[in-house]
UniProtKB/TrEMBL annotation:
InterPro entries: Carboh/pur_kinase_PfkB_CS, Ketohexokinase-related, KHK, PfkB_dom, Ribokinase-like. Residues 22-298 form the Carbohydrate kinase PfkB domain. GO terms for molecular function: ketohexokinase activity. One of its GO terms (biological process) is fructose metabolic process. The keyword Transferase applies. It holds the Pfam family PfkB. PANTHER family: KETOHEXOKINASE, PHOSPHOTRANSFERASE SYSTEM TRANSPORT PROTEIN. This is Ketohexokinase-like isoform X1. It comes from the Eukaryota. The lineage of its organism: Eukaryota, Metazoa, Ecdysozoa, Arthropoda, Hexapoda. Keywords: Kinase, Transferase.
């Protein structure tokens, strides 16, 4: 019988540790049919490819695959169906220990599918997508979640009007959490206010409407180029006008690496870490996002623990909470400083560099262990 320090001092068992909150990714899960070719094919030609595979894909779902391999409890929320390929996606999520228990299952729905051509000579990935009239997650699906179980919710910028409603729903939850804590004067709250992140990936200008609600934003190279931005610093500078005060913004740019704007306005950057040979860049951006979510979420939870165990800071904490009730427009991502952001972006670029040297996502967990 192990008697803990706590038991010796207090005489009872410690209160049960609440289970670790999850990171939730809201977006698409689809079937990726991947053909590995020596060169990108010519139109109306007939040839053999080097390799063929099919795998579970979709931005949000890929990010879950990566986080799960880093040991992060995570959940996917997106529309699924009872169709055979969607069954494959569900089996695969079970295999990777990704929760999907809140996904609505459409009877007679299809399975969104992408055909992907990987070119060995250039490392490019060409994607041809069909969405099978995919319906999107709605607010009423989202309201079924118990938000107490999550510390971070990441959105793929898809159905903007619905995603906005979900973000507002989280904001209200955040307010109720901070209000409850300041009323009860609880020092270490069981409840964690949720951090919201969003990815602007597709070339749709309306996606900018999501920025005012996000604590953390990822701006893809494709989106940036579609706005006429030529590089990462221009992207960060221009996009920050539309973001919430104190937001953290990332811009990743393939072999140029990535850059980020910290809440205090400073900029950090990290070059790419290309592998000896680029094998598979499909899902590079999703891997980068997952690495950042994983890293910052860990920092957030560690910060909370640290903060709450510091008696001398309890007054400061109450003041900050009241401040948050007054103004929900300002981010309170105080766990992200310049040093943390530099570490996060470096981790993101390193993990992604390793990923593009591998087929698919398997093997990332052992690469990650080598970093520790
Ligand atoms: N060709 C490359 N060489 C080296 N690093 C790369 C390369 N492509 C991507 N990366 C790494 O991946 C990160 C994310 O890149 P980026 O967002 O441009 O990927 P993407 O092609 O958009 O991915 P996705 O297939 O998910 O859309 C970069 O910051 C960089 O660290
Ligand atoms: C998608 O919708 C269009 C028009 O509503 C319809 O013609 C088509 O059959 C649908 N496709 C599938 C795969 O359900
Ligand atoms: C979610 O929260 C509820 C109530 O707080 C709890 O009963 C449940 O076990 C939690 N689920 C997970 C997966 O943590
Ligand atoms: C977004 O969702 C709403 C409600 O489900 C739907 O009416 C609308 O067509 C969707 N819009 C887009 C752009 O997907
Ligand atoms: C970015 O913002 C700057 C300053 O606000 C402006 O001069 C520039 O035209 C913008 N770039 C693009 C591509 O919109
Ligand atoms: C980024 O692009 C802007 C606008 O074209 C340019 O002024 C700036 O010098 C560029 N920065 C770098 C680092 O290339
Ligand atoms: C906790 O309090 C100590 C002493 O006042 C201080 O040095 C430390 O920085 C505090 N830690 C945090 C996370 O605020
Ligand atoms: C949720 O609350 C946290 C902590 O107070 C804060 O950092 C964050 O900005 C809030 N997010 C939203 C969307 O309200």
């Amino acid at each position: 019988m192990i008697s803990t320090f706590y038991e010796k001092i207090v005489g009872t068992s410690p209160p049960p540790e609440p289970s670790e909150p999850k990171v939730l990714c809201v977006g698409l899960s689809c079937l990726d049919i991947v053909q590995l070719c020596k060169h990108y094919p010519q139109e109306d030609s007939d040839q053999r490819c080097i390799d063929f595979r099919y795998q579970r894909g979709g931005n949000a779902c890929n990010s879950c695959t990566v986080m799960s391999q880093l040991g992060q409890p995570c959940e996917f929320l997106g529309v699924l169906s009872n169709e055979q390929f969607s069954q494959f996606l569900q089996d695969d999520m079970r295999k990777y220990k990704i929760d999907f228990l809140h996904c609505p299952i459409m009877e007679n729905g299809g399975c969104p599918t992408s055909v992907v051509i990987l070119s060995m000579s250039t490392g490019s990935r060409t994607i041809i997508h069909h969405d099978q009239n995919q319906t999107e997650i709605t607010l009423s699906d989202f309201e079924k979640l118990n938000l107490e179980n999550y510390s971070w919710i990441h959105f793929e910028g898809r159905n903007i009007s619905e995603v906005l409603l979900m973000m507002q729903h989280i904001e209200n939850y955040n307010k109720s959490v901070t209000q409850r804590d300041s009323e009860t004067n609880e020092k270490l709250s069981r409840y964690t206010p949720i951090t919201i992140s969003v990815e602007l990936e597709k070339k749709r200008p309306e996606l900018l409407d999501l920025l005012p609600y996000a604590d953390v934003a990822f701006i893809s190279k494709d989106f940036a180029k579609s706005r006429g931005y030529l590089n990462m610093s221009e992207t960060l500078k221009n996009v920050s006008h539309d973001a919430k005060t104190g937001a953290t913004i990332f811009s990743a740019w393939a072999d140029r690496g990535a850059m980020a704007l910290a809440p205090d306005g400073t900029i950090v950057q990290c070059p790419a870490f290309p592998p000896h040979k680029i094998i598979d860049t499909l899902g590079a951006g999703d891997t980068f996002n997952a690495a950042i979510l994983y890293y910052l979420n860990k920092e957030k939870l560690a910060f909370k623990k640290d903060y709450s165990s510091n008696a001398s800071d309890s007054i400061k904490m109450t003041i900050q909470q009241n401040y948050n009730i007054e103004s929900s427009e300002k981010c309170q991502t105080e766990f992200i400083d310049q040093a943390v952001l530099q570490e996060a972006i470096t981790f993101g670029c390193r993990l992604t560099g390793a990923k593009i040297g591998l087929q698919g996502f398997d093997g990332l967990s052992s690469i990650y262990k080598n970093y520790l």
